[in-house]
Amino acid sequence: MKRIPRLVLSLVVLGILAPGCAINPVTGQRELSLVSPEQELQIGSEGYKAVVAEYGLYDDPALQAYVNEVGQKVARVSHQPGLAWHFAVLDDPTVNAFAMPGGYIYITRGILAHLNSEAQLAGVLGHEIGHVTRRHTAERITQQQLYGLGLGVASAFSETVRRYGDLAQQGLGLLFLKYSRDAERQADELGVAYATGAGYDPREVPSTYATLKRVSDQAGQRLPGFLSTHPDPGDREVTTAALAKQAMQGKTGLTVNGRGYVQRLDGVVFGSDPRQGYFAGDEYVHPALRFQLTFPAGWKHQDTRSAVTAQEPGQQAVLQLTLADAGTLAPAAFVQQLGGRGTFADVSGRPETIGGFAAWVGRVSLPQPQGAAVVAAAGYIRRADSLMFQLLGRSQQPGDANDAKIYASLRSFRALTDAARLAVRPDRVKVEKIVTTATLEATLRKLGATESLLQTDAILNNLQADETVMAGTLLKVVVPGKR
Q1: What percent of the chain clears pLDDT 90, i.e. is strictly above it?
Q2: Cβ count near 420 (within 10 Å)
Q3: Residues ≥6 apart with Cβ < 8 Å to 123
Q4: Is residue 1 part of a domain?
Q5: Dist CA 134 CA 433 (whole Å)
Q6: Domain count along the chain
């Protein structure tokens, strides 16, 4: 364990850092903390708004309600049953779950597809609840503040555009927080205890981690994978199996509910959803909003629900596309309004027509807390349906080659009319009831699984290709969409 620097300890003693002593709900002990319980609630609340804006909630009210029901059941037997707990399914293919202070728990549709029982879901939610009750996030924030580090979101455009307040940014940053192995061990212990206390069979928990080990991180994920934020404290499957055995002593009739859980996954979107936007090379296509845009060739891309960003490989320039809340204002009037609000220190430009839409193109100066204002290339494009698209870009020098590429990109905006691109569909999970006993591989081939999906389907069901699948078993298979 790293020691707190002597200088920091001196500042704490003198009261300069104004530390507090909070009682840990799990241990009952007082501990040094720079984050009060009230601040935890604020971070969680503000962070929730930012997470929903950035990643989106999965559009399935029944599944959202089901996850919340299981989560609330587990939370009621935790060390903080009176906390206002919130459980949300994010519309993200990444296999992960996250905890924010104040009782905000997020689980992705990606990890839901890989679980195989309600007891496994309870175990995952119990693990995240454990991070909250044990105050692991407050502990990490305290440590990083003491060492002079921040938990802000690393964004290529953070110098010029702040979409969220400090608390919301800190909340978003927590989604990328890597816990210590000690914290993971404690959360594993609490997760098993909470799931068992809620009436679930803890013997389902170890197989969850076996599945997670088989899931490899995918390139270009918007969120990190489970094992990158929840490092294995050492022999996790063995340890949780031992914890489960101990928790089972004297208990019978605990819930697994494998079939009921798997049935709820029928039709769940699997992998990235092309309807919410995708890149075809340097071309960005958004079928749901019916537009397309060409970004500079070879730039690195990042796509979230609230912004699409492209960055020059040498980090010499960046371009970001977002939606702006402009009401019914025309582009030029909206820019003038932003200037009047102080969002821009200065503006220079003129109205144009881009892709048949009313637009404004020019330069804006964004005031900075310290130092000179940052000059950015800017474009505002008004759609007939009242959507206002905002494009802001910055290169090393106005007028350089990258600056020209930024303007060329924003002027490439146009309506999406290609019928094939508008008709894209995501891959989905289909639940099949097996009628003939055979090996998993033979069963999947009979169901028409393609070679590329055999391994994916095997991992989804936490089975090996040569394992026997009995008649009557429910299997999850991925049905390809249309790209």
Answers
A1: 66
A2: 8
A3: 191, 192, 195, 200, 202, 204, 205, 208
A4: no
A5: 41
A6: 3
